[in-house]
Amino acid sequence: MSMITLFNGSYCNEQDVLRELVNRTGCRVIRDEDVISSASALSGLAANKIHKAFSGKASAFNTFTHEKERSITYLRLAMAEMLSSDGLLVAGFSCHLIPRKISYALRICLVADLKSRSTAAALQVGMPVKEAAKLVRKQDEDAALWVNTVVGSSDPYDASLYDILIPTDQVTVNEATDLIVRNLGRDVLQITPRSQQALQDFLLAARVEVALAKEGHHVEVDADNGSVTLTINKHVLMLNRLEEELKSIASKAPGVSSLATKIGKGYHQADIYRKVDFELPSKVLLVDDEREFVQTLSERLLMRDMGSAVAYDGESALSMIREDEPEVMILDLKMPGIDGIEVLRRVKQTRPEIEVIILTGHGSEEDRATCLKLGAFAYLQKPVDIDRLTVTLKQANEKMRQNLAAMKNS
Fold first, then answer.
1. Where is 330: in which H helix or E strand?
2. Closest C-alpha among 314, 302, 233 to residue 267
3. In a domain? residue 30
4. Which of 191, 212, 327, 410 could tie 217 with a disulfide, CB 3.0–4.6 Å?
């Protein structure tokens, strides 16, 4: 039986259409949460972290951690493994993970104009229509970022991405369902040996991509009947060495009959290819109101392959802790607004696994005692030797990992 994929704008009667489709076709539904759960089991990453791949912007640390790319890699493998079953209805953002080469998928998109969606949102959520319109626009922005990431289109409702675009503000649920079911029986959607091979290629490419991600690499992977092509889309100083390393890893994946590498259209842009080193600190939050100092420090850490983001005040730092989940902090004490001691106190109350290194030029022995009592990992004075700070950072990062392991096992 052919497969249905169902993508939609928010508040487009999607649940009613989905329910009616299941009643009419008997398809088994795969939702985003199913794919996330499977990806979490495959990767060992927390489901809530993988879920963030579907949301808008990447973390401030993503340049160094590639967390979003790794999450999508495991989502793709989870999706490829799930497609081995027959009679599926894939609903949600996950449907865009399925490559166009899998031709037996009938790709549906439910859309409606902003006015009707905002009215529906206002009724369902219980808010003024004007506020509901903002909510709908934000959801469209997230959809656009996701679709652009996985298929390269800035318009999530671009008709070329789908077989049928259904305006739910103009047709009833029954009319929409009738249209989908009628098209499901078309000859072009029947499963063929070629489309089955496309599914096997999808699975092989996903497995190779995961094998590379485990070693800190992120490149585009394509498979064609066992022949795998790796596309490097960022500039690298020693291309031949990188190609050899990628081939060595990918060749060990079962089912690979041949390997080739090529440079993609992004290779000549300014971005530099950066392999993730899982042993080095890559999510360090630097908090200091001395902008020139903290920017210089961030650059010096980058030269040592350690990733960092910068906040210039305590309030911004606390916001980044909620949104971007740093692992180690380097924190100044004297800042306008919320000072460093209060930031440390709040961090240890809400995220005790984060290790905090105090780095200050104005602290006293009393401050030092207070910070260590509150749980600071270390208390250092400016100016600090960069080698000493580097060692302290690595030790703090290792302690943070031990904290997380203890929390997971408790």
1. strand 328-331
2. 233
3. yes
4. 212
The answer for residues whose C-beta is within 8 angstroms of residue 157's C-beta and 6 or more apart is: 9, 109, 111, 165
Within the chain, what is the greatest distance between any pair of CA atoms? 79
Rounded to an integer, what distance in angstroms lies between the CA atom of residue 357 and that of residue 132?
43
Q: How far is CA 202 from CA 81, 182, 189, 255, 330, in A?
A: 9, 28, 18, 12, 43
pLDDT reported for residue 56:
63
Q: Are residues 173 and 52 in the same domain?
A: yes
Residue 196 is predicted with a pLDDT of 92
Examine residue 370 and state whether it is found in any structural domain, yes or no. yes
For residues 159 and 221, state if they share a domain.
no
In a shared domain, residues 251 and 345: no
Q: 0.85 exceeded by the pTM? A: yes
pLDDT tens for each residue of 259-315: 999 998 877 776 777 788 888 888 999 999 999 999 999 999 988 889 999 999 999
Q: Over the stretch 98-107, which tens digit does the pLDDT of each residue have?
A: 999 999 999 9
Range of the domain at 165: 3-189
Residues 58 and 137 in one domain: yes
Flag whether 270 is in a domain: no
- If asked whether residues 140 and 10 sit together in one domain, one would say yes
What CA–CA distance (Å, rounded) separates 407 from 399?
12
| 364 and 323 part of one domain | yes
